[in-house]
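Example record used in the benchmark description.
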Amino acid sequence: MSTAFQRRVDIPHASCDFPVMPTELVYPHIEKPAGQPARLQRHRRTRVAMIVADYLWRGWSAEEIVRQYPHLTLAEAHAALTYYFDHREEIEEELIAEYHSAEDWKKAHPTPPLLVRLKQEAKR
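Model output (structure tokens):
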């Protein structure tokens, strides 16, 4: 083995050589295809950002998220939150873009006057 890939650890009366191996952080239950949002492997339509939205905006813990969405496992909820904490900027940008998209849709599709009037009458 090349010495470029080894480091020497010296401790009085003991030493050892071990290979330095590059590591890649793996998130179990999460997949991140290039150019697409991170999502759960078992539920490909469930994006990490969807789980994070419940955590941030509803204040739900991983346990509460699993209670509300019984198709998820606790490991998947924790994996999604772990991915978020390691990729906060990416997920928050996704959430902001989603919010702006929803606001743009609301502007392009205003509530029909009849529905506005019915809602106002229902409040009385």
